[in-house]
UniProtKB/TrEMBL annotation:
<protein>
    <submittedName>
        <fullName>Transcription initiation protein</fullName>
    </submittedName>
</protein>
<dbReference type="InterPro" id="IPR011008">
    <property type="entry name" value="Dimeric_a/b-barrel"/>
</dbReference>
<feature type="domain" description="YCII-related">
    <location>
        <begin position="44"/>
        <end position="104"/>
    </location>
</feature>
<dbReference type="InterPro" id="IPR005545">
    <property type="entry name" value="YCII"/>
</dbReference>
<dbReference type="Pfam" id="PF03795">
    <property type="entry name" value="YCII"/>
</dbReference>
<comment type="similarity">
    <text>Belongs to the YciI family.</text>
</comment>
Amino acid sequence: MKYLMFVCTDTAPDTDTAPEPDIEVWVADNDSNGRRLKGNALAPTSAATTVRVRDGELLVSDGPFAETKEVIVGFDILECADLDEAIEVARTHPMARGGRLELRPFAVDEF
C-alpha cells in the first residue's frame, strides 16, 4: 500500500538530547529496500501559491493554504505492507522528533 508522508514542523519538538537519526542514512536505507519511492524537501512557504475558483472566477493568492505555525516542509511516498510498517518507517525519520509526520494512504493505488 502506498502512503504519502507529509513532513512537518512542530512547535513542540522532542526534548530528548540524544542524537537524531541522520536523514541521509534514513533516505539511503528506505530507498535501497524499496519502501521510499520518492521524496523531497519543499521550498519555503513564501514560495507557495494558493489557487481557488469561486463563482467561475480564478483566485490566486501568495502564501500557503492555511496560516499555521506548523508548516509542511517535505514529503515522501512510501510503499509499505500496511499502516504498521508505515508507522515504523515514520518513527525512524529524523523529523519524527524535531517535527511531525502525517501518513495518508492513497485512495487509489495508481502511482
